[in-house]
Amino acid sequence: MKRDDVGGTAPDPLDLRLGARLAELRAEHGWSLGELAERSGISRSTLSRAERAETSPTASLLNRLCAVYGRTMSQLLSEIEAEPAPLVRAADQPVWEDRASGFVRRSVSPPHGGLRGELVEGRLDAGADISYDRPPVPGLEQHLWVLEGTLAVTDREVEHRLGDGDCLRLRVWGPTRFRCPGPEGVRYVLAVVRP
Predict the structure, then answer these.
(1) Which candidate, 144, 138, 176, 182, places its Cα nearest to that of 157?
(2) Residue 115: predicted pLDDT
(3) Three-state SS sequence of the chain
(4) CB crowding 106-125: b at 16 or more within 10 Å, else e
(5) Closest-CA residue to 151 (of 142, 143, 159, 140)
């Protein structure tokens, strides 16, 4: 949300497009808010507020919705952007922020529905801790390359601690957790390959 000219808060344009796309996806599946709530484990009121852009969805919430709709987060976010170009300049790469968790996500590679791979830059503030209860797409291949800082990644109840230059490759089948133990934030590249 951002301040508007009359002193109130206006929804962020990205949140508006995201909310509209979430409502479209639910309608395409013919689901009521109640049905989507049962499938995702997210309350009806939270889903309704996200669709109306009254709140900016968290990374965890978007991950649950992506799992229900069989999309990666990059696919979902690319669906609310303009027609994809083969080259995206750094200044034009879409950035999405989960302020509640201290997570910033930049879609580095140009999103394209026909391609299986994508690159994402992630940044977590010191102390940030994000848990995903399921992958957006079962068997999703991920390569995490830490550029600077420390990242603790838990997959299948095993924690992997990564420092500058370390790379972790995994296939995601269940819950995962991304944690920045600090004392500084962490910046990393995530290469995602759909099965």
Answers:
(1) 176
(2) 73
(3) CEECCCCCEECCHHHHHHHHHHHHHHHHHCCCHHHHHHHHCCCHHHHHHHHCCCCCCCHHHHHHHHHHHCCCHHHHHHCCCCCCCCCCCHHHCCEEEECCCCEEEEECCCCCCCCCEEEEEEEECCCCEEEECCCCCCCEEEEEEEEECCEEEEECCEEEEECCCCEEEEEECCCEEEECCCCCCEEEEEEEECC
(4) bbbbbbeeeeeebbbbbbbe
(5) 159
Q: What is the mean pLDDT of the chain?
A: 88
Q: Does the model's pTM come out above 0.85? A: no
For the four alpha carbons of 157, 65, 72 and 190, in that order, the dihedral sign comes to negative
Residues 75, 107: Cα–Cα separation, whole Å:
10
Contact 150, 91 (CB under 8 A): no
pLDDT on residue 4: 41
Q: What is the 3-state secondary structure (H, E, C) of 174-185?
A: CCEEEECCCCCC
For the residues 36-43, what does the mean pLDDT come to? 94
Instruction: Report the C-alpha gap between 167 and 100 in whole angstroms.
Output: 27
Residues in the chain: 195
**Residue owning tokens 């950035």:** 95
